[in-house]
């Protein structure tokens, strides 16, 4: 469906708690219609049946848009619903294993927190990295120490693949993110659980474009 | 490596907490040397990297024995370490999906707690069922209500595939399990965490043989 020419600019990560009112699929659809460019499904607190069923529904909905669906951690769920890729952290399956299971066409993303991890990123295995957390967040309680935009800027100097900044990113941080050299911002609570996710997404898209022309 | 002619009689499920002293691999090896016929790896509390690495080590060790390695829940881990099969519960991936991902040669097991679930078991999708819990246990806090040997006996009358009884099974229950019609007993704490897992396994094997001749 998609070439590897991915637009990572407004990368939505769905959160099952924050989207409880609207639901995951509805939140994703509103965001995508407003210009979100990637959707990641992440629900570690759910049992796998529920994760699989939600991922299937997201895939079905996203068929109508040129927006890739990335599954957090579960390569089996990604294979089962023919998702566009998988995002793994440092404590999930190694990227070599993920690449082997998914094949060369799918997107593999990896979370990066420090220079040691970044130095190991192999562009043959990893399509993009999520670099952070920029700030501390409540949506991922087990996250590593925040690196700030200064830390991000340093890591971007040795980053061999496209990168998204992640961790507490709001609309007013986009200018700093662009200046640090990333290709996108990953957001959770900036869209999920907001009264008007479309408007919030439009604002992120507008600011991204404004800062990258 | 294995035909589908599996000996399910003494089916060991490894528990990461109970095996903390000896370790998963050492516990499994002692049990297998003493006659355990299946090893299931289950560690839902671990991150997937650790699960993957442990499953790889188990697979490596079990190569020397004609004993299949079954992975709980994680089809991706099973694929990555070329395990012999996957065991899923009712809230994990549907068995049709697991079968499709693993192919026809691998073993697919399914947990069954009641007649409604048993009636849906399709022998093309499911190689064996784990029926229970017979008793309530501490190793699986989210398990369904215990069914006892009477419940097991009733379910076995409509069971279309080989079955193992699971949930609090100890050596002195083997006679009842055999009489209920199962092809094996799945044990956790009867082996894991015991001072002498070899001896405990030998006892289970001896009692199984004694009751099935």
From TrEMBL, chains A, B:
Q: What is its EC number?
A: 2.5.1.3
- Key words, A-Z: Magnesium, Metal-binding, Thiamine biosynthesis, Transferase
GO annotation (BP), single:
thiamine diphosphate biosynthetic process
Q: Where does 2-[(2R,5Z)-2-carboxy-4-methylthiazol-5(2H)-ylidene]ethyl phosphate bind?
A: 137-139, 168, 188-189
Q: How does the cofactor bind to this protein, according to its record?
A: Binds 1 Mg(2+) ion per subunit.
Which GO molecular-function terms appear in the entry? magnesium ion binding; thiamine-phosphate diphosphorylase activity
Name of protein: Thiamine-phosphate synthase
Give the species. Candidatus Aphodousia faecigallinarum
């Amino acid at each position: 469906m998609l070439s590897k020419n991915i637009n990572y600019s407004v990368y939505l990560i769905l959160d099952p708690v924050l989207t409880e009112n609207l639901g995951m699929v509805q939140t994703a659809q509103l965001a995508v219609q407003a210009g979100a460019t990637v959707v990641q499904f992440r629900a570690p607190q759910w049992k796998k049946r529920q994760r699989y069923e939600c991922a299937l529904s997201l895939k079905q909905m996203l068929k109508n848009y040129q927006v890739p669906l990335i599954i957090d951690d579960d390569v089996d769920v990604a294979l089962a619903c023919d998702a566009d890729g998988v995002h793994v952290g440092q404590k999930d399956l190694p990227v070599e294993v993920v690449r082997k299971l998914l094949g060369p066409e799918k997107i593999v993303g990896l979370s990066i927190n420090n220079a040691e991890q970044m130095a190991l990123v192999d562009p043959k295995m990893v399509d993009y990295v999520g670099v952070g957390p920029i700030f501390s967040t409540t949506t991922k309680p087990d996250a590593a120490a925040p690196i700030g935009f200064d830390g991000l800027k340093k890591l971007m100097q040795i980053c061999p693949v496209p990168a998204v900044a992640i961790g507490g990113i709001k609309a007013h941080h986009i200018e700093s993110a662009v200046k640090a050299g990333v290709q996108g911002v990953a957001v959770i609570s900036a869209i999920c659980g907001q009264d008007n996710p479309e408007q919030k997404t439009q604002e992120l898209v507008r600011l991204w474009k404004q800062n990258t022309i």
